[in-house]
Design goal:
By secondary structure, this protein is mostly helical. It has one domain (1-123). It has five helices and no strands. The chain has helices spanning 3-30, 37-56, 68-81, 84-96, 100-125. α2 packs parallel to α5 (100-125) and α4 (84-96) runs antiparallel to α5. The longest helix is centred in the first third of the chain and has 28 residues, at 3-30. The two termini are 30 Å apart. This is Fluoride-specific ion channel FluC. Na(+) binds at residues 79, 82. It catalyses: fluoride(in) = fluoride(out). The chain crosses the membrane at residues 6-23, 35-59, 65-84, 104-125.
Length: 126
Amino acid sequence: MTAIDIFWVGIGGGSGSLLRWWVGKLTGERYHGHFPLGTFIINISGAFIIGFLSTLFVIDWHDRFGSFLHAAVLTGILGGYTTFSSMQLDAAKLVNSKQRMLAFGYLLISVVAGLAAAALGVWLAA
């Protein structure tokens, strides 16, 4: 790993985090329900994009940290954009507010829809 790799991952991660914040903010301003829609949209769109780009650019899973594209886009931008930890926090908040079924449904649909989105991205790019 070189200094330029670290730089690109940092720039990508910061950009992805800002994009996540922006999408979450816009969603929160328009949707006021209990379902964590912002985090859901972010994670599903990120799963689609990583599936699409990794197939389009023929990126081997074991080499995903190698080039500029891998470092800046897949690890940096998409790593900063998607958020497993926020998904878990959203589910924990739902459980704490006695909405256990919504929490379970949210986690289940997030995993299933994320897998489907990644598979769709792979299929469209193939």
